[in-house]
Amino acid sequence: MSHGSKQAHVRGAPDRYHDWTGISQHSNSTQTERAVASLYALSGSYDLVGGNRVRRGPFYRPVNGLGALSPSQLSKALGADKRPIGPPAMGWVTARYMYLAVTEAKPYPIRVLVAFGTNLPLSQADSALAEEALKRLEFYAHCDLFETPAARFADIFLPVNTPWEHEGIRFGFEISDEAASLVQLRQRVVEPRGESRADNDIVFDLACRLGIKDEFFGGNLEAGWNYMLEPLGLSLADLRASRGIKCEIDS
Asked: Roughly what angle, to the nearest 10 degrees, separates helices 199-209 and 221-229?
């Protein structure tokens, strides 16, 4: 990684910053990530063409529900006491704190896990602790395309289908500024094989069986998508009638 000024990088080729499993599985992954990110920022490569651009996509209505949580409830996120300005503050739970909640009941026990394509022993640090936590769960349901090392610990394995077997909405593409403004419905190409189902269908049906379908648009996925599209003046019917709709994005 070079250490030139921002002006030099504009004339030449900016650095790109990408990492995942290789760095993130190391025992010192946090500090390594910080070092890489710091060098990338100090080289003046942030948000330059040819580097890691920061593009703003269409402003749809999110449905993650994080804003509905009270501060006291959000403070219960695993790891919030150790890293109050880290991932727990944004509603994220890191793997290590989840493992400790299962194996040591700290700060409270986790007994049940429903995972969607999360192969914890290979995608996160400390594979041994991951396997121990998965073994100790009272109930573990794994949803995936195929059997993985994590799935082998599951009490129930639910087959999900591929993107070509169910619909999905995409808000913005990272390829270019113009592509970032697109909203597109990915339509089903082929019928689902076997008994496989879409992740969304499993989640919505589970919500209905748990008695919380009102929080999931009455158990209607299309109603949820229309809720997200409403601020853009679009509907699912509009997307089905087009190959992609360009939205105006304020700078």
From this structure: 110
DSSP string computed for 163-211: GGGS-EEEE--SS-HHHHTEEEEE---SPPPTT-B-HHHHHHHHHHHTT
Q: What is the mean pLDDT of residues 33-45?
A: 82
Helices (H) and strands (E) in the chain, counts: 11, 6
pLDDT of 244 over the 50 cut: yes
User: pTM score, two decimals?
Assistant: 0.78
Report the 10 Å Cβ neighbour count for 130.
Answer: 24
Tokens of 142: 């794994």
User: Residue range 210-227: average pLDDT?
Assistant: 95
Q: How confident is the model at residue 74 (pLDDT cuts 50, 70, 90)?
A: confident
Query: Whole-angstrom Cα distance, residue 33 to residue 29?
Result: 6
Backbone angles phi, psi at 12, to 5 degrees: -105, -145
Q: For the chain, first and last CA: distance in Å?
A: 30
Task: State pLDDT tens for residues 219-240.
Answer: 999 999 999 999 999 999 999 9
d(Cα 108, Cα 181) in Å, to the nearest integer? 43
CB-based burial label for 54 (10 Å; 0-12, 13-18, 19+):
exposed
Cα-only R_g, the chain: 21
Per domain, the residue ranges of the chain are 1-54
What are the start-end ranges of the E strands in the chain? 112-116, 139-144, 156-159, 168-171, 182-186, 245-246
